[in-house]
Amino acid sequence: MSRRVTPTLLATTLLMAGLVGCSTDAPKNESLPAPVTPPPAATATPTPQASAATAPEQAFAVGVRQLELNRDGRALPVTLWYPAAGKAGGVTKRSAAAAEGRFPVVMFSHGFTAHPDDYAPLLIRWAAAGFVVAAPTFPHTSRGSDGKLVDVLNQPADVSYALTQVLELDGKADDGLRGRLATDRVAAAGHSAGAVTTIGLFTGGRDERLDAGVVFAGTAVGVGTAFAGASAPQLFVHGELDEVVEYAAGKAAYDKVPWPKALLSLPKGDHGRGLLSDGKTLRIVSDTSVEFLRWSLYGDAAAKERISTGATRGNLATFDDHL
Q1: What's the alpha-carbon Rg for the chain, to the nearest Å?
Q2: Is the pLDDT of residue 307 over 50?
Q3: For the chain, which residues make up each domain, given as ranges?
């Protein structure tokens, strides 16, 4: 599934210059929260069990760890956030024991000059809701890299490679996620350049293992809108005041999706700074995306009914619903 960049693709990608700076002024501190001592077993609360048709109703504690990967010389360290045993809330716990159950996997792609940790406020919420979130740090578009934006076109293959390695943890005898991954329930998500990566996973770099997609402030420039393969519901999220990727560009890609889809529009939203810190925008986006993932990956019918309710709460967003 290699996507070698050709001169034609390079020319196309020059149109992506507007994605420069799509890290949305992310925090500079790349370190994970400091580990804390897990509570004693006697005070730990029972954690919910994942099932095939009903998503967990309670929140999980969240563990975090690193997976060091390399695809043909392309270093791809992956941050994993996952449901952990113990009491929900508090800081994430480094290398904590995984909660009981089998949990769907969400592959998340960061924006240009960004880092997975920048999106922790959102991704930790996904993990607490019952998903294993795997976020690669891309070799040429992450913060501190050489900043080769054209390399975005190689990132769908990076994500597919990382997904293969993550799913293999479910059968690895000495791994803490052994028996904890729902390997047949997988989604891809991403922001800005990472959203381009995500769209590419459903077009030219189609990964048939993917059951759903979440696109934050995305455009199809460079990867096209030739959506292919089995139906995979898509949730698009876009600020109408986006100063980097115009709202119209995101809407154009959304309009081309041939599958069940929905668009969460934020009338006062910019390129995505609301995803990086707790606030009203993050709560609406996280609640809507969690319910979408509960429906599309767990098959939770009740969650589908709640998607639009969360999306329109407080009159801060509008919701185009074709799910």
Answers
A1: 18
A2: yes
A3: 7-13+54-322
CATH architecture of structural domain 7-13+54-322: 3-Layer(aba) Sandwich (3.40)
In angstroms, the CA 293 to CA 129 distance is: 10
Closest Cα partner for 235 from 277, 297, 154, 193? 297
In which band, very low, low, confident or very high, does the pLDDT at 309 lie, cut at 50, 70 and 90? confident
Q: How confident is the model at residue 28 (pLDDT cuts 50, 70, 90)?
A: very low
- How high is the pLDDT of residue 316? 87
Closest CA to 216 of 236, 199, 245: 236
93-94 and 61-67: which strand pairing?
A: parallel
Identify which of 159, 107, 166 has the alpha carbon closest to the alpha carbon of residue 138.
159
Measured CA to CA, the distance from residue 272 to residue 191 in angstroms comes to 8
List C-alpha distances in Å: 123 to 39, 83, 157, 290.
Answer: 23, 11, 22, 10
Neighbours of 51 (CB within 10 A): 15
User: How far, in Å, CA of 319 to CA of 323, rounded?
Assistant: 11
- Of 85, 304, 109, nearest to 177 (Cα)? 85
Number of residues that this document lists for the chain? 323
Q: Locate tokens 């639009």: which residue?
A: 308
102: nearest Cα among 86, 120, 88, 82? 82
Question: Taking a C-beta distance cutoff of 8 angstroms, is the pair 195, 182 a contact?
Answer: no
Residue 125 Cα distances to 53, 59, 91, 227, 285, angstroms: 20, 9, 12, 29, 11
pLDDT digits (tens, 9 = 90+) for 174-230: 999 999 999 999 999 999 999 999 999 999 999 999 999 999 999 999 999 999 999
| CA pair distance 209, 167, nearest whole angstrom | 11
Inform me whether the pLDDT recorded for 153 exceeds 80: yes
| Tally: H helices and E strands in the chain | 7, 12
Task: Report, in this order, helix, strand and coil percent for the chain, each rounded to 5.
Answer: 35, 20, 45
